[in-house]
TrEMBL record:
Transmembrane segments: none annotated. The lineage of its organism: Bacteria, Pseudomonadati, Pseudomonadota, Alphaproteobacteria, Acetobacterales. Residues 36-265 form the Solute-binding protein family 3/N-terminal domain. This is Amino acid ABC transporter substrate-binding protein. Keywords: Signal, Transport. Belongs to the bacterial solute-binding protein 3 family. Residues 1-21 form the signal peptide. InterPro entries: Bact_solute-bind_prot3 (IPR051455), Solute-binding_3/MltF_N (IPR001638). GO terms for biological process: amino acid transport. It comes from the Bacteria. It comes from Teichococcus oryzae. It holds the Pfam family SBP_bac_3.
């Protein structure tokens, strides 16, 4: 009798698991059926997402989207970019207009638990700062009492700025804009005394100005701003896929796997972790319902994390940002790829 009960229990468990598997992954199924990823990106900020002279989108977030398309389809062109403002990005994701956000979006508790979305995993660490004219005489934010501050509507920077001035018993006047280029224009036209946003975006904005040396980014940072992708809540399969894709790019850097040597590493590697990552053994791809070579393909066509960072916003680019906190943990940074096994 006991063995019969166990057999029935096992059968029900198998049927339930099969039903869950059949129902899982509405986003992945839709993306595969469409044959194209739809990626929500910034409306225009150097280093993350900005069209070049030919109208082709360039930047870190753009390349992360292209790499995800490679992991899915082995084709970096099978992605459509949907520029979204700070105030519309989460609504667009929640309504299904886009499949994923790679859009300079800070992970916060309330965003993660109240919007019907999931913050996936950080890929860039930043902090709120202020930019002022170099000849303003201002060296720290506490000297900006009574200032007019340009801010982007719908960002964490609104709250960070208000919290700083309130906690220091200082007055300020916010001027809100929908887009970064609008705020930058207002700053240059003396409508604002300062522009408050994340330091990477301040560096990108300054780099795009006619006379970058006319502007100074104050050294202080007033918040933690970990950027990461967002997906819709309730689709664990898609959440897992995006999470482990980002992790794979960091893991590739840690293992020394690059776009130039990935084929050789795949052929000659004896390290079990490298063989798993590159699909020599297929279990990672099977777990994500992807080709075993999904990570190897993405690395070959788009590069590892360091390659993407360096060509989009590293010291040799107009943005000119050193890795800083976005170095691997082995080099004193915050990037700590999780074990892929």
């Amino acid at each position: 009798m006991k063995s019969g009960f166990l057999a029935v229990t096992a059968l029900l468990a198998a049927l339930f698991a099969g039903q869950r598997a059949a129902e899982a992954g509405p986003t992945l199924d839709a993306v595969k059926a469409r044959g194209q990823l739809v990626c929500g990106i910034h409306t225009g900020i150097a280093g993350f997402a900005l069209p070049d002279a030919r109208g082709t989108w360039q930047g870190m977030d753009v390349d992360l989207c292209r790499g995800l398309a490679v992991a899915l389809f082995n084709d970096p062109n099978k992605v459509r970019f949907q520029p979204l403002s700070s105030s519309t990005r989460f609504t667009a994701l929640g309504s299904g207009e886009v499949d994923v956000l790679f859009r300079t979006s800070t992970h916060t508790m309330l965003r993660d638990v109240t919007l019907g979305l999931r913050a996936v995993t950080p890929y860039f660490y930043d902090g709120h700062g202020f930019m002022v004219r170099a000849n303003s005489g201002i060296s720290k934010a506490a000297e900006m009492a009574g200032a007019t501050i340009c801010l982007i509507q719908g960002t964490t920077n609104e709250q960070v700025t208000a919290d700083f001035f309130r906690s220091n018993n200082l007055q300020f006047t916010p001027v809100l804009f929908e887009r970064t280029d609008q705020a930058a224009g207002a700053l240059q036209n003396n409508r604002c005394d300062s522009f408050g946003t994340d330091a990477s975006q301040l560096a990108a904005t300054r780099a795009s100005m006619p006379s970058p040396s006319d502007w100074t980014i104050l050294s202080e940072r007033f918040s933690k701003e970990p950027y990461g992708p967002y997906v819709r809540r309730g689709d664990d399969e898609w959440f897992d896929l995006v999470r482990w894709y980002v992790n794979a790019l960091m893991e590739a850097e840690e293992q020394g796997i690059t776009s130039a040597n990935v084929d050789e590493m795949k052929e000659k590697a004896t390290n079990p972790n490298t063989r798993r990552l590159l699909g020599v053994t297929p279990e990672l791809g099977q777990a994500l319902k992807l080709d075993p070579a999904w990570a190897a393909n993405a690395i070959k066509k788009m590069g590892n994390y360091a390659e993407i960072y360096d060509r989009t916003m590293g010291p040799a680019t107009p943005v000119g940002l050193a890795r800083g906190p976005n170095e691997l943990w082995t080099k004193g940074g915050l990037l700590y790829p999780l074990p892929m096994r």
